[in-house]
Design a protein that fits this description.
The chain is mainly alpha-helical and 426 residues long. The longest helix has 33 residues. The chain is globular, with a radius of gyration of 22 Å. The protein has two domains: 177 residues, Growth Hormone, Chain: A, CATH 1.20.1250.20; 181 residues, MFS general substrate transporter like domains (Growth Hormone, Chain: A). The protein contains 16 helices and no strands.
């Protein structure tokens, strides 16, 4: 496979793909794994619930800033070194969280943990963009998206088991050990994907120029916004569904856990369907279809919430809405980074920064209108879904046939199966 620079790229070995998938899980696990320990943290530090909640916001802010800094640095200094430094700092910050004597120091350590933990996500996406494009990249992004989507759903379950056994501080010791495992995976299994001749060599000014060029690309910007707002749908669901399903619809903790896991199966199935359909159609078409489904099921959920919120409709709409994300997130990332392969680290940085900034905004908003209604969650999901679809109609002018598709074979008369006009339109 040839990249725009003319160099030949090789497929990632299986061990590298597994390493990237695990790195993609590290930050999402760190986001939510300690949530069941919030009451215990507040009690131990003698502080308010809002102060404990700020430790989550601090992590998301750190993630956003880490994406903006680490992504461009990986364009300058290489992918592997950026991940090695980021993962090492993440391990140290996790230890600092485990030893924090006050909630203020816990928040500061969480911000550092999020900043460094961003390396696994932002640089991992850039590695995929370095090595693959088109449907092949969409499949790899699909794996990373699947891990990133399931990890924050499963994290509170695993964290709850740890907290019940040995307390909330043990969660951060676990994350520190996991960071060290990831560090070993990078050392032994993850080769450098960005050769020196393709790196940005002009320092900070060059990185700023790359960023300016990236955001001026209208197609990239359209796919970036589609990805960002789709992630907003996911985070609105993660943030609010525990309250909606348990407090409003009366599900027990056990039933809620099962439903949460069932919805994780939904996004897994959506991702599997996406992988199969990539052999027959384009990532752009699948992205539009996924966003259309996301808008539809979010609208169903909103109508249901506004008219009284019935349990069955809520559960069905949530399952299909979350499953639709399997058609959206991977394809949006593939198409966005495919537009800026010359600055994949910078493009990935903006992708990650915006999604976590929106997550930091959505989390408090869905709970801002009280505890007796499902409307905030439903409306937030619908608003994000619509805002994700709009850029594709106003900014992106994408032909349905990707240029990365190989030329069609000639027929028995020596003619190409697709005319030159067709090829020009791709």
């Amino acid at each position: 496979m040839n990249d725009p620079s003319g160099t030949t790229t090789r497929a990632l070995p299986a061990t590298a793909v597994v390493s990237l998938a695990l790195l993609a899980a590290l930050a999402p696990l760190a986001v939510d794994m300690y949530l069941p320990g919030f009451p215990g943290i507040g009690t131990e530090f003698g502080t308010t619930a809002s102060a404990v909640q700020f430790t989550l916001t601090a992590f998301l802010i750190g993630m956003a800033l880490g994406n903006l800094v680490i992504g461009p640095l990986s364009d300058r200094f290489g992918r592997r070194s950026s991940m090695l430094v980021g993962t090492t700092v993440c391990a140290a910050a996790s230890v600092a969280c485990a030893l924090a004597p006050t909630v203020e120091l816990l928040a500061a350590a969480r911000c550092a943990q999020g900043f460094a933990g961003a390396a696994g996500i932002v640089v991992g996406r850039a590695v995929v963009s370095d090595r693959a494009e088109g449907p092949a990249a969409a499949k790899l992004f699909g794996l990373l998206v699947l891990v990133s989507a399931i990890a924050p759903i499963a994290a509170p379950l695993a964290g709850g088991a740890i907290i019940l056994s040995v307390g909330w501080r043990a969660v951060f010791w676990f994350l520190a050990v996991l960071s060290l495992v990831m560090l070993a995976a990078i050392v032994f299994f993850l080769p450098e994907s960005l050769p020196e001749e393709r790196r940005s060599a002009s320092g900070v000014s060059g990185m700023l120029r790359d960023a300016g060029g990236v955001v001026r690309d209208r197609k990239y910007l359209g796919y970036l916004l589609a990805h960002t707002f789709a992630f907003g749908v996911l985070f609105a669901y993660i943030s609010a569904s525990p309250f909606v399903l348990q407090e409003i619809h009366g599900l027990s903790t056990g039933w809620f856990t099962l439903l949460f896991a069932f919805n994780a199966v939904g996004i897994t199935l959506g991702n599997v369907v996406n992988q199969r359909l990539l052999a027959r159609t384009t990532p752009h078409r699948l992205l539009v279809a996924g966003l259309g489904l996301l808008v539809f099921w979010s609208a169903v959920l909103s109508v249901d919430a506004l008219t009284g919120s019935t349990r069955v409709v809520t559960m069905v709409a949530l399952w299909f809405g979350v499953a639709s994300l399997g058609l959206v997130l991977a394809n949006a990332a593939t198409l966005a980074l495919g537009q800026v392969r010359h600055a994949a680290g910078t493009g990935s940085a903006l992708l990650g920064a915006l999604q976590f900034l929106l997550a930091a905004l959505v989390a408090p908003l869905v709970g801002a209108w009280g505890e007796d209604t499902a409307v905030p969650m439903a409306v937030a999901m619908l608003a994000c879904a619509v805002l994700g679809l709009l850029p594709l109609t106003s900014l992106v002018r994408e032909a349905v046939r990707p240029s990365s598709r190989p030329p069609r074979p000639r027929d028995g008369n020596g003619r190409r199966a697709c005319s030159s006009r067709c090829e020009d339109n791709s």
